[in-house]
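Researcher: Next sequence.
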Amino acid sequence: MLLIRYALLLLVTLSLAACSVERDSDQQWAHSELSSYAAAFSPNGKYVLVGDTDAPAKLWDIEQDQVIYSWQNNSQVGTTTSVAFSADGKVAATAEIDTIVLWEIANGKPMMRLHFPVRIKAMALSTQGDYVLLALQDRTAIYFDVIGNRVVHIFRHDGAPVNAPIDQLINTVAISPSGQYALTGGDDQMARLWSLTSGKQLRRWKHDNSVDIVGFYPKGGYVLSGAGNDQTHLWNIKTGKKQYTLRPSPWPKTLPLPNFPSFKTTTSAFDFSPNHQYLVTGHPSQRICLWTVADGEKVDCWQVARRKQLRPGVVLQAVAFSPQGDAVYGESGNGIGQKWLLK
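Model: Next structure:
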C-alpha cells in the first residue's frame, strides 16, 4: 500500500512539474479579426498565410506587419479551410471546401484553379507546386499532376488495423523534400509511407489513436507522426523502427509512459530549425515546445497567451523558426501571431 501511495504521489508531482507557464511573446500581431481556420509559414520564414474564418485568406509579411495579398477562390467571401506553400516558396495554395487555387507569390495572381468532386481535408504541395497531394472526404488521398490535370496515384487506408470493414478517413498528408515519397495519416491509427513513383506503400507505423499530423525530416531518413490525444514519434525510414517519442513530461525515459491523460498530448504543428538541430511543436493546449532532434530531449515548453482570458484554450495552427533560427513564431486559431526570442 505504501508503495502504491508513493507511486501515485510521484505521478502527481511529475504531472504538475510538466505544466508549462505562460510566457509573454517578444512581438505580437493580430492576423485575423476574430479567428482563423488554418495557417502556414513560408519556407523562408518571412510570410504567414492565414485562412480567416468567413473572410479572404491573407498573406502577411510577418516582421513588417503588413498584408501583402488577400486571396479568395471566388467572388463570394468564404472560409479557407486549408493553406500550403511549395518548398521553393514560389507558390501558395488555398482551399475552400472542394476548390483549390494556386497563387504566384511574386505577383499575387492566381495560377490555377482546381475543382474536385468532394471536400478537401488537407493538402501538401510539391517542391515547385506542380503536384499536389490531397486528403479527401471520400476516404482517399490523391497525388495530382497540376500541369497534366490528372490523378497520378490514389492512396487508401484500409480498415484492417482497427477491425473496420471499410477504408478509413485520411486526415493529414505530406510530400518529402526530394519529391519521391508521400506520408498519409488516418483514422486507422496508421501513418503510411508511399512511393510517389510507383504508388506503392513502403512502410506503415501504428499509433493508439487517429493520426492527425505527419511530416518529413528535411535532411532525409526520418519522419514525424502524431496521433490525437496520444503521442508524437520520430521514425527511422530505413529500419522502420521508432527513434523516440516526444515526452513533454519529465517521466524517465527508462520507463514506459503511463496510460494516463497527463502523459498524452496532441501535436497540431511542427517545424525544424534551419540548422536541422532543433524541432518546435505546437499543441491545442496553448503550448509550444522546443526539442533537440538528435535525441528528442525537451529544451523548453511554454504557454501561449490567449486573446481574451475568458475564451477557451488556443490551438497552435502553425509554428516556425525565424530564418536565422534565433526565434520561434506561432500562429494560433485566435487570429494572433506571436514571436519568441530563443535565449
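Model: Residues 24-334 form a domain with the Methylamine Dehydrogenase; Chain H fold (CATH 2.130.10.10). The helical segments are 2-17.
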